Amino acid sequence: MAAVDDTTSSALAERKAKPVLPDEATYKTNLAKAEGELAAFQKQMEEVKAKIDLAKPNNQDSPVAKRQQELRAELSSIRQEQQGFKASRNTIQEKINVLDATVKARIAEQKTARGRVAFKSVDEIDREISRLEKQVDSGSMKLVDERKALTEVSNLRKQRKGFSGFEETQKAIDGLKTQMTQLKKSLDDPQQRALSDRYTAIQKELDSIKADQDDAYKNFNSLRDQRSKIYTEQQKAYTALKGLKDDYYKARKAYREYEEEAFRIRRDRQKAEREIYEREKRKKIADKKLEEASRPAFTDEILISQGLIRHFDPTYDFSTLGLDNNNKNAQAGTYRAEVGRTVDGTGLKGMKVLKKEDRGDDYFVGGGGKKGKKGKKGAAAASPPETGKFNLNFGVIEDLSKVKVDPPATQTEVPGVIEKLAEKITNWKSQQATKTSENIKKAQEEIEKLEAEEAKASDKPAAANGTPAEAKQENGAVAEATEELKKASIEA
Questions:
Q1: Shared domain check, 309 and 173
Q2: Per-residue pLDDT averaged across 289-297, rounded?
Q3: What is the pTM of this model?
Q4: Residues 390, 410: contact at Cβ < 8 Å?
Q5: Hey, how many other C-beta atoms are within 10 angstroms of the C-beta on 80?
Q6: DSSP conformation letters of 317-385
Q7: pLDDT value of residue 291
Q8: 319 in the same domain as 180
Q9: Is 287 within the bounds of a domain?
Q10: Which InterPro entries would you find in this protein's record (predicted)?
Q11: Are 478 and 451 in contact (CB under 8 A)?
């Protein structure tokens, strides 16, 4: 782990300080300002170029010259259309003139005819005829006056018939006037008026272009100087805009590369830590297998049996079984096995320890047969703690179960139990070397298998990450455990 931390620290130390991520809002504000300045210079350049093109003589490719050509072509087309309308207009005007002369002549004739008549309307004539007829019918007139009145009535009736001709003549005059009005309306055509307005507008635009050309031609040199100045300012604005974009994206790229590098370093560090952890874990497994395999076989069983025999017969001579009487744990070196279970006393702190007779412990009680004189004699000879009863605590019964020996039901069965335990110890001692060798061989095979799998799994990652030293160290952990296993001695 220390090696990984040193490598990571050195890698971080070699890197530069963390770049600052540029503010996007500030960048957009500055970008809009720079683009606005560039657009303003671009517009000025286009205006100056247009003036220069306008001032160049015989420059048919300039936009202004092309515009002049378009306007002149449109003007010519309007003239042709107007000529067609003019011929039609002359014909209509001639008809209007003829009708106007006819109307004027008829009006004059009617005026003359009306001047000869004393009455202005038929009603006046009818009233006069009615008055004269009443005078004649009254009989008060002289014969001469009556004849004059009748003659006048006859003349009035003739004049009355002439008034109907006046009305027909007036209707004819009104019809002619209507025809003249329609013809005059046809002369006022919207299409012709639109063409006339367009003609006027084109002529004004051509005059304006001609005036601008004359003015630009006078200032041609100053326009060229102005164009050069605007071009210089335009290039500065373009360079500033390009620099702004380049700086922003370079800063973003540097920040992104820094973050990617930091992520890669963290990932490599975590991977290395994980590999070291797995390597140490595998080494512990190999060491544990080595320790377990190197330990003499049946050690636990022998120690448990030895403890049980000592429990039943404290004076038993273990030298007959090849065991040490003084050190009951000699078979296991530092290993210590006690009869019964180990009780954690953490929860008993501060509690009162009761005597045996005050406790309510349950004991296995083996009956000693029927109570009688023979039983009493046997009990007295064996000096049991209590006549006719044989008690075993649960720990002893559990240890007997571990070594697969039935617990004694009576005191008389104890020697048989001791004999069985001694036989088992002898049997285990005889098989101990062979069994230990088998355990070592089995552990060695498992470690070799683990080593092969680890070597196969770590070859490609080690080469890809460029850390052959770590791969060698990792593979060496299993090899070291195997070597220690081969050198381990079998204790009898």
A1: no
A2: 82
A3: 0.35
A4: yes
A5: 9
A6: -GGGGT--SS-TTGGGTT----SS-----GGGTTPPPPPTTTS----EEEE-SS-SHHHHHHHHHH--S
A7: 80
A8: no
A9: no
A10: Bfr1 (IPR039604)
A11: yes
